[in-house]
Amino acid sequence: MKKLWLVYVLLIGIFLVYVLNYRLQAQSADPWETTGLRGNIEDTYVMVTFQIGIDYWKSVLKGFEDGAEELNVTVEYHGSTQHNANEQMTVLEQVIAKKPAGIAISAVNSKLLTATINKAVEKGIPVVLFDSGAPNSKAYSFLGTDNYNAGIEAARKMAELTGSVGNIAIVTTPDQHNHQERTDGFLDTINSEFPMMEVVAVQDGRGDQVYSRQAAEKILTEYPGLAGIFATESNGGIGVAEAVQAHKSKGLPPQIISFDTDKGTLDLVKDGAISATMAQGTWNMGYWSLMELFQLHRDLAADPSVYTNNKPLPVPDTVDTGIDVVTRANVDNYYAK
């Protein structure tokens, strides 16, 4: 009987040692090896845009949300209702006051938003910019299209469509940094590579369909026989297409190159009203913005002075999220599935 009890005690002892050893190993295990990189659901990361209701931001936000789901953190989405720097500045101030774990922002005006972006960084809130940057701010990174290169690609496509001959116009948003870069790339390429083409007008469409239509109507009246119009954003492209369709002119209508892949733009490409549009890597912008903010927050939470004394950052200064040219031939590939 005593021998049986000794066997029981020995077995129980071995079991307890096994359980204790298992727990110690679990506590010391690298979290990357067990559950992957995971955050705290109480940490909130915020995306801030402008013209908050437009389709363009949906894919960006989806990428941001997908990243949050992978990392087990919370995200919020805020922005100005209009294409207005003062309104966006107010929204950003309200977000800063809540002290989120990080902010991803597309700046409607690079100069006017810089001071508020810097305020967030100085308060220890990591900030990254996407889509439209503020290069003189203290934000840690910019994720978006290489907009100057996108302007180059648009100019070469316009030359292909027009036979490299004729007068060209641009409808853009000059106070927005990314649009100015697209305009510069387009202008420089037309001037340097295509001597039989000339950009005769650059008009402000204010990022608005109605204003862009009015700008295009003015151009079409002043420059009959125009070969093409480049619109640097989707609202502009739709407005330009409406103006061209309404304008009664002799000869062929101008070729239109637009930007982005909202349904309205894609429908016009499919119908042939817009000849081509430039597709940006919008999901990439949102997803990698969240990933960068997560890493920055982890480091700053552990040591608020971690990036002083020129210590290298864990994120790149710039991430090119890509560009594609969409035409009637491949437009079906870009509709939301």
Set down the secondary structure blueprint.
Layout: H1 2-28, H2 31-34, E1 44-49, H3 56-71, E2 74-79, H4 85-97, E3 102-105, H5 110-122, E4 127-130, E5 141-144, H6 147-162, E6 166-172, H7 177-193, E7 197-204, H8 209-222, E8 228-231, H9 234-246, E9 255-259, H10 263-271, E10 276-280, H11 282-302, E11 318-320, E12 323-326
Parallel strand pairs: 1-2, 1-3, 3-4, 4-5, 5-11, 6-7, 6-8, 8-9, 9-10
Antiparallel strand pairs: 10-12
Mean pLDDT equals 90
Q: What's the arrangement of strands in the largest beta sheet?
A: 2-1-3-4-5-11
Largest sheet features: 6 strands, parallel
* Oligomer classification: single chain
The ordered string of helix (H) and strand (E) elements is HHEHEHEHEEHEHEHEHEHEHEE
Q: Please state roughly what percent of the residues sit in beta strands, choosing from under 5%, 5-15%, 15-25%, 25-35%, 35-45% or over 45%.
A: 15-25%
Helix content percent band: 40-55%
Give the structural class.
alpha/beta
Number of beta-strand segments: 12
Principal-axis shape equals: elongated
The radius of gyration over CA amounts to 26 Å
Q: Please mark out the parts with pLDDT under 50 across 5 or more consecutive residues, or reply none.
A: 6-11, 26-35
How many helices does DSSP assign?
Answer: 11
Q: Distance between termini?
A: 72 Å
What tags apply to this protein structure?
337 residues, alpha/beta, six-stranded mixed beta sheet, 48% helix
